[in-house]
Amino acid sequence: MKVVIAQDKYELGSEAASLAAGLIRKTIEDRGEANVILATGTSQFETLSELLKFQDLDWSKVTMFHLDEYIGLPESHPASFRKYLKERFIDQVPALKAAHLISGEGDIQPGLEKLKSEILNHPIDVALVGIGENGHLAFNDPPADFENESPYLVVNLDEPCRLQQMGEGWFATLDEVPLQAISMSVKQIMKSKHIVCSVPDDRKALAVKNSLVQKVSNLYPASILQNHPDCTFFLDKNSASLLPQEVLA
């Protein structure tokens, strides 16, 4: 696991996107195609924006998978992650080979089965992820399930997670935040060949410290990334503010 500390979220986004672009480019050169995971939320704004600036990436050879989505939330809602990805990424790269989005509306089972089949047939090369204020990875809140082999899970959202969504401005009140979501499982995320984890802002500082300093535990879901063979954390000075010197060195 590597840790890169940028001056601010803009430099963080630029450096994370540069690494991700290089990994995608190299994968296409080696295999003729690449499969990627994209996260959403405010932590990914700069990384996704910078990634779109790489004009030499052949998106017609890239298949994208969606990390998580609320259950019962229409795509028209400002907090919908499908809406987020379409507006901030998919609509910007019309040549994209395929985008496999999660729908949490109506009968979710047929869509989940299709997603499971697709991702099992498209081993992930590069995963762009973040971590939550409660240390969650995707929507796998603590205590996270580290053992479930299913690529996608229906999960309950804890109150700290839901408070974060409200605090970021996606919902006006806590009662508006859904109680459940569909999330890519921890096992599935960990199968990614490369992981690029973007985590700006001081409100994530404790979660960053727990993820990088604590022993791997499902009480600190993102701590599992310590076990990944090729994971790079991109932090800014605010999110890295609680890290001990030995991690910063």
Throw out a few tags for this protein.
single chain, 249 residues, alpha/beta, Rossmann fold, seven-stranded parallel β-sheet, 8 helices
* CATH structural architecture: 3-Layer(aba) Sandwich
- Taking pLDDT < 50 over at least 5 consecutive residues as the criterion, the unreliable ranges are none
Terminal CA distance reads: 13 Å
- How many DSSP helices? 8
Number of strands: 10
Q: Beta-sheet strand percentage?
A: 15-25%
| Mean model confidence by pLDDT | 96
CATH fold topology: Rossmann fold
Silhouette:
globular
Structural class: alpha/beta
Reading off the top of the CATH hierarchy, the class is best stated as: Alpha Beta
Biggest sheet strand line-up: 1-10-9-6-2-3-5
Helix content: 25-40%
Let me know the largest β-sheet: 7 strands, parallel
Radius of gyration: 17 Å
Tally of distinct domains: 1
**What is the element string, with H for helices and E for strands?**
EHEHEEHEHEEHEHEHEH
Compact overview of the structure:
With 249 residues, the chain is an alpha/beta fold. The chain has helices at residues 9-31, 45-51, 81-88, 109-120, 159-167, 186-190, 205-213, 245-248; strands at residues 2-6, 34-38, 62-66, 68-70, 98-100, 126-129, 152-156, 180-184, 194-199, 231-236.
Note down, in words, how this protein is organized:
α1 (9-31) crosses α2. The strands form two sheets. Strands 1-10-9-6-2-3-5 form a seven-stranded parallel β-sheet, with helices on both faces. Strands 4-8-7 form a three-stranded antiparallel β-sheet. Helix content is 31%, strand content 19%. It starts with a strand and ends with a helix. The chain has helices at 9-31, 45-51, 81-88, 109-120, 159-167, 186-190, 205-213, 245-248; strands spanning 2-6, 34-38, 62-66, 68-70, 98-100, 126-129, 152-156, 180-184, 194-199, 231-236. The radius of gyration is 17 Å and the shape is globular. The longest helix is centred in the N-terminal third of the chain and has 23 residues, at 9-31. With 249 residues, it is of the alpha/beta class. α2 (45-51) links the parallel β2 and β3. The protein has eight helices and ten strands. The chain has one domain (2-248): 3-Layer(aba) Sandwich (Rossmann fold), CATH 3.40.50.
